Amino acid sequence: MTREDILLRKIENGDRQALDRLINDYYPDILRYCLWHTRDRTAAEDAAQETFLKVVRFWDSYRHQGHFRAWLYKIAANVCRDAWRKADEEPLPENLIYDEAGFGRAESDADFIRMVEELPEDARELVLLRFAQDLTLREIAEVTGLPMRTVQSRLRAALKKIKKQLLKGELCHES
């Protein structure tokens, strides 16, 4: 049984401290996800907080079958989507600079970020969930509502496009 399973069982039995530990465990990942989908840190913090408020509010509808993380990210995705609709904002700017500790590796490869940003929005979301948030293909399928094979093929196509752009860039640098 995983730590998550133990915490979820304790929460079902009314242990409020277990809920606090679960939130503390997932908050940095959800905040990082929200940072990708909002304009600034304040909006991301609001979205992360709203995500966990919805988790608490809808806790009774959740049945643990090993998919808590996917359920959590689906809530976060919906909260971020709603925030964009409410604010009636434009999509993220192309030159967005991330100033979070977890993005150091991504910042070091600006070309890769640019290539990901050039992907269509649905493909970009799949790449983000897989590589920035480290979700499994099954979890991504649950978050997006797509069949797992579709997630797999679209992710493969997105990575193929990135690889092609990388190779094209290397050839340009060699010339």
From TrEMBL:
Q: Which family does it belong to?
A: Belongs to the sigma-70 factor family. ECF subfamily.
Q: Which InterPro entries match?
A: RNA_pol_sigma-70-like, RNA_pol_sigma-70_dom, RNA_pol_sigma70_r2, RNA_pol_sigma70_r4_t2, RNA_pol_sigma_r2, RNA_pol_sigma_r3/r4-like, WH-like_DNA-bd_sf
TM stretches of this protein: none
What NCBIfam families does the database record attribute to this sequence?
A: sigma70-ECF (TIGR02937)
Keyword Lyase applies: no
Q: Using the record, list the residue span of the signal peptide; answer none if the entry has no such feature.
A: none
Keyword list (alphabetical) reads:
DNA-binding, Sigma factor, Transcription, Transcription regulation
Which ranges carry the RNA polymerase sigma-70 region domain? 22-88
- What GO molecular function annotation could you give as one example from this UniProt entry? sigma factor activity
Put simply, this protein is called: RNA polymerase sigma-70 factor, ECF subfamily
RNA polymerase sigma factor 70 region 4 type domain location is 112-162
Q: Name one GO biological process term.
A: DNA-templated transcription initiation
Note the Gene3D superfamilies from the entry. 1.10.1740.10, Winged helix-like DNA-binding domain superfamily/Winged helix DNA-binding domain
Which CDD domains has this protein been placed in?
Sigma70_r4 (cd06171)
Whose protein is this, by species?
Answer: Eubacterium callanderi
